[in-house]
Design a protein that fits this description.
The chain contains 19 helices and 16 strands. The strands form five sheets. A five-stranded parallel beta sheet has the order 2-1-3-4-5, sandwiched between helices. Strands 7-10-13-6-14 form a five-stranded parallel beta sheet. A two-stranded antiparallel sheet has the order 8-9. It is an alpha/beta fold. It binds adenosine-5'-triphosphate and magnesium ion. Adenosine-5'-triphosphate binds next to helix 7 and helix 15.
């Protein structure tokens, strides 16, 4: 389930077209209107609803502050005079300051009685964005609101963009290769739950493709036009965990010089990818659980509760059930995360994927490095198929990149791949082909005699020219 789906309805009034491009949801602008005169509130509600705004009203300053604690608005339109003191505007000015303390980016437009320009000027001095004199002129009121809503959306969006730019962003749907039988359950799950809002836990060894699966899930979902925000939860120091995830307000702690948006808010409407979830310390797990349960959070140092609508995809290479048994991971948090679990098999258990993956990477790197490498020679392919790939797809990716850089011709050779022998999964001599054994022995001899061809040839029982031919064949440098 998504957490905290927004209550905004989806109509979009013509007066409030978003200027923020198509990545903003087509939400109507939300206005909070405050006045202690019912007839004024009614008249404004009628006018502005007709223009497509979503309206909420308050008849006293306390109502404004209450509404702001739990909901977000695009602008506030407020009278300066309230029951307690109907002329000086002090109560209104006080309210203005409080609104700004809660959210400095929220535009406030004040309304004043005809002839009380001094109070209006004072309100502007204290940060009101504009003022309207009563009785208002509809055209001016609408123009002022439209400008302020657009400005605030642009301002808030640029704040978001700046933060998003520092994050990995999905560039469309990633290439996802899955031919092996053992990958079919993964594919079935991707297509069935991708489009849903279910929280998904992805498990698998290092480099097996957890992040690609997360990006594919997001790309398949209705949220694909909204951001996928990735955060390595395991890599965050305790002290900055909350601030990274939930953001902070200026002054919340010594280094908090400006307001900062956290990853949850950045991912609003989209997907939050919590990587290395098993490494989140217990103390922080409780904080995470609360947002997942309630869909509500506060920035550090702020008392304003924000609702966030975020789909959670998490990933780990640990066994979370075991972590729960060992008391290192909260079971209630696990239950929130693993509505659906996708387990990615290691590459050694899906050998049918090795060749297509290798060719996919070959294509990528031959283009990137502008090298005319077209394919793998049979021995190289054989070696890749037999290798254990302890580092999974990432290791294959890196090996092919290296091979493309090393390769001198159109075909990648075994030696270009640099597969590490002697590691877990390295082949036994009797499983190698004759040519692989020959290439191995030639290489050894060259190494032993420090590139001296005559000595190496003699040790191998070959003529110098026969050795040269083999060096060329296996792409071995002699010095
Ligand atoms: N099925 C796949 N098809 C295409 N590329 C893949 C596939 N699986 C993985 N890759 C590529 O392999 C590399 C490693 O994948 P990824 O980063 O998703 O692994 P991971 O499981 O998140 O690793 P880690 O545990 O180290 O975080 C990436 O470059 C990714 O694009
Ligand atoms: Mg990863």
């Amino acid at each position: 389930m998504p957490i905290g789906a927004t209550e905004f309805d989806q109509r979009c009034g013509e007066g409030v077209e978003s200027t923020a491009g198509n990545r903003m949801p087509a939400n109507p602008a939300r206005l909070l209107i405050a006045d202690d005169q019912r007839d004024v509130l009614e008249a404004l509600r009628l006018l502005l609803k007709g223009e497509g705004y979503a309206i909420e009203t308050a008849s006293a300053p306390s109502g404004v502050l209450d509404a702001m604690q739990t909901r977000e608005f695009d602008a506030v339109l407020m009278d300066l005079n309230y029951a307690r003191d109907t002329t000086s505007g002090e109560e209104g000015l006080d309210l203005l300051s409080r609104i700004q303390a809660i959210d400095s980016t929220l535009p406030v437009i004040v309304m004043t009685a005809w002839g009380s320009v001094e109070v209006a000027v004072e309100a502007m001095r204290r940060g009101a964005r504009d003022f309207i004199q009563k009785p208002w002129e509809n055209a001016r009121l609408l123009a002022v609101l439209r400008t302020q809503v657009e400005l605030s959306r642009v301002l808030r969006r640029s704040q978001r963009l700046e933060a998003e730019n520092r994050l990995l962003r999905a560039e469309g749907l990633p290439k996802f290769i899955a031919n092996a039988d053992s990958m079919q359950p993964v594919l079935r799950l991707l297509s069935s739950i991708g489009p849903s809002d279910a929280n998904v836990l992805i498990t698998g060894e290092h480099g097996s493709g957890k992040e690609v699966v997360a990006r594919t899930l997001h790309g398949l979902s209705a949220r694909s036009s909204r951001p996928l925000v990735a955060v390595n939860t395991g890599g965050l120091a305790e002290g900055i965990f909350e601030s990274e995830l939930f953001g902070h307000v200026k002054g919340a702690f010594t280094d908090a010089r400006t307001d900062r948006i956290g990853r949850f808010e950045l991912a609003h409407g989209g997907t939050l990818f919590l990587d290395e979830i098993a490494n989140v310390p217990l103390s922080q797990q409780a904080k995470l659980l609360r947002v997942l349960e309630s869909g509500e959070m506060e920035r550090v140092g702020s008392s304003q509760t924000k609702r966030v609508d975020v789909r959670i995809i998490s990933a780990t290479n640990a066994d979370l059930d075991q972590e729960v048994s060992a008391g290192r991971f909260r079971q209630d948090l696990l239950f929130r995360l693993n509505t659906v679990e996708i387990e990615i098999p290691p590459l050694r258990e899906r050998r049918a994927d090795i060749a297509p993956l290798a060719l996919h990477f070959l294509d990528r790197y031959s283009q990137r490095y502008r090298k005319p490498v077209k394919s793998f020679d049979p021995h190289a392919m054989q070696a890749m198929l037999e290798y254990a790939w302890p580092g999974n797809v990432r290791e294959l990716d890196h090996s092919v990149e290296r091979a493309v850089l090393m390769s001198a011709g159109e075909l990648v050779r075994v030696s270009d791949l640099g597969l590490r022998a002697g590691r877990e999964g390295s082949q036994k001599l009797e499983e190698l082909s004759l040519e692989e054994v020959e290439s191995f022995l030639v290489r050894k001899a060259i190494d032993r005699y420090s590139g001296n061809i005559s000595q190496a040839a003699e040790a191998l029982g070959l003529s110098r020219s026969a050795l040269y031919r083999r060096l060329q064949k296996y792409g071995i440098g002699s010095s």
